[in-house]
């Protein structure tokens, strides 16, 4: 349900399994033969839905997709509880995304099979945080002791919140929370950093800190979650990570983004050594393969 459900050792075990899969994927082609994954996405998705589907296929299993909501019986008024009961009887594991916070937890209470939260409102996106940490580990050889910048919509962005919470499980040197005043990180996130003694600072100008960062995690302003469109108008386009900003970056800075990107990373950055966001999305498949294997094998 949340990245905070995991201990550091459990995440490290998961990363090791994902690493083993990357090293020799053919060895894992049959491990989930006969298992069925159900994907139920009540909000749009490209990466999370397709990478879970790719992951189960690469492990020898198969998947059912609830598909477009207008073509399911939800369009006839069926409630989420009954929908989950059906998926639970047709599949061995359910991956759900919903705009309501707590929807995945509700589904897990109804289903007998395991349920994975693929995003609930602005709250949690735990498997994104897992693949983000796995990417840092692979590219920097460690997660601890690094300086991180998390930039963008820290108020409504669930990927940003889960990334920050994931860092609290490790021992970062420092986290800079970079956002406009209106989109500062939520208290439920910063209170965890305080409780766990993680050094962090809130700043508005990325130019002030770019030279200190090992990892810059950029996020999209979540237009769809603003209750008031005029609030969105005030902050849209607040940040653009471009070559000018990166001029002062460390040589070995890596720039991550959970994607989709709108305009917060200029296209000119894609061809630079800093850009690691497509590699990050690619690693979603082995990471989710490892997760499915560990859950379904018991
Ligand atoms: N990062 C992420 O959750 O992407 P999708 O919305 O495309 O699944």
With helices defined by DSSP (H or I, 4 residues minimum), what is the helix count?
Answer: 11
Tally of strands: 9
Termini Cα gap: 18 Å
Hetero groups = phosphoric acid mono(formamide)ester
Order of helices and strands: HEHEHEHEHEHEHEEHHEHH
* Rg computed from alpha carbons, rounded to a whole number of angstroms: 19 Å
| Helix fraction bin | 25-40%
The spatial strand order of the largest sheet comes to 7-6-5-8-9
Bin the strand percentage. 5-15%
Q: What is the residue-mean pLDDT, rounded to a whole number?
A: 96
Return residue spans where pLDDT drops below 50 for at least 5 consecutive residues: none
Structural class assignment: alpha/beta
Spatial shape: globular
Largest sheet properties: 5 strands, parallel
Polypeptide structure, described:
By secondary structure, the protein is of the alpha/beta class. Helices cover 38% and strands 14% of the residues. It is built from 11 helices and 9 strands. It has helices at residues 8-23, 47-58, 80-90, 103-110, 126-140, 158-167, 187-195, 229-235, 243-246, 277-282, 284-297; strands at residues 36-41, 62-65, 93-98, 115-120, 147-151, 174-178, 200-203, 215-218, 254-256. The strands form 2 sheets. Strands 7-6-5-8-9 form a 5-stranded parallel beta sheet. Helix 1 (8-23) crosses helix 11 and helix 2 (47-58) packs across helix 11 (284-297). It is globular, with a radius of gyration of 19 Å. The chain starts with 7 loop residues before the first helix and ends with a helix. The mean pLDDT is 96. Bound molecules: phosphoric acid mono(formamide)ester (CP). Phosphoric acid mono(formamide)ester (CP) is lined by residues 45-48, 128, 159, 258-260.
């Amino acid at each position: 349900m949340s990245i905070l459900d995991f201990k550091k050792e459990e995440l490290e075990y998961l990363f090791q399994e994902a690493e083993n899969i990357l090293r020799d994927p053919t060895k894992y082609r049959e491990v989930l033969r006969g298992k069925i994954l159900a994907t139920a996405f009540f909000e749009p998705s490209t990466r999370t839905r397709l990478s879970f589907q790719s992951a189960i296929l690469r492990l020898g299993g198969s998947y059912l997709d609830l598909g477009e909501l207008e073509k399911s019986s939800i369009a006839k008024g069926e409630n989420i509880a009954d929908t989950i009961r059906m998926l639970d009887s047709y599949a061995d594991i359910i991956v759900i995304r919903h705009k309501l916070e707590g929807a995945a937890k509700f589904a897990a209470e109804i289903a007998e099979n395991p349920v994975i939260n693929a995003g609930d409102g602005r709250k949690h996106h735990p498997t994104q945080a897992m693949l983000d940490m796995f990417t840092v580990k692979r590219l920097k050889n460690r997660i601890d002791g690094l300086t991180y910048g998390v930039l963008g919509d820290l108020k409504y962005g669930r990927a940003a919140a889960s990334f920050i919470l994931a860092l609290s499980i490790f021992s970062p040197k420092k986290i800079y929370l970079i956002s406009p005043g209106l989109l500062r990180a939520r208290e439920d996130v910063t209170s965890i950093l305080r409780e766990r003694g993680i050094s962090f600072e809130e700043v508005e100008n990325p130019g002030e800190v770019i030279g200190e960062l090992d990892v810059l995690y950029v996020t999209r302003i979540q237009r769809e979650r603003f209750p008031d469109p005029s609030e969105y108008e005030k902050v849209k386009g607040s940040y653009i990570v471009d070559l000018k900003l990166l001029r002062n970056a460390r040589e070995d800075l890596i720039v991550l983004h959970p994607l989709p990107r709108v305009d917060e990373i200029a296209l000119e950055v894609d061809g630079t050594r800093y850009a690691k966001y497509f590699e990050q999305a690619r690693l979603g498949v082995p990471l989710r393969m490892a997760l499915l294997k560990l859950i379904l094998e018991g």
